[in-house]
Records
---
Amino acid sequence: MKVPNFVIDEVMAEISHNSFRCYLAIMRKTTGSKKESSHITTDELMNLTSIKNKRTVYSSIKELESHSLITKVKTNTQYGNIYIITGNWKSKGISK
């Protein structure tokens, strides 16, 4: 997966270390797999990012949502929530 320059240049400076790791994991499972969205479980995010605490993943996802970097669609399935890379970074001063 090729990471766009703006992700390193601008997004990384705006969010926490753990949120950045979650963002890259979600990017890999969505745009990196040529999909617009992907079902991802919390355990899968923990494995992909080496984050050991579910609460840390939850707070990282909330941070990404607050910066309008992702959209999370809650589901009640074993496949996890649906995550979408929104591309709406301009709303929080992050430019593409």
Note: Helices lie at 5-14, 17-29, 42-49, 54-66.
---
Amino acid sequence: MADDEPIKDAEPAKETDGSKFIAALAENEKPIGDLAERIERIVDGFVSKREKARRTEREGRSRFVSKIIKWTFGVIGLAVLGTGVLTWYGVVPPEAFTGLVGILVGALITFLADHVAPYLYEAEEAPPDS
């Protein structure tokens, strides 16, 4: 029965720095929570503005590229139609028709590759040197 008796010589627990910190946090719970919410709103607003700007930039770029591609294929279509009509009426020989269409299509596709393709892909940002 000696084990059932409480220890009378035990000292009360001392307040350590950790328990003081926890007590201070508990006392200031609302102001700390409000500060965390304000920081979250500020960061979220910044990220939202940045993403919105990037999305606008991508949409503008895609509209630009689609307009150029539509006009390019429109010019190709008109050129093929025009040279086809001239070939039909015998003004241009069939070999010249084939050559003209090949040159025109090749030149326009090269133009697209040189001037439009770089707008299709964003350049990756280089990581900062450490």
Note: The CA atoms of residues 102 and 109 lie 10 Å apart.
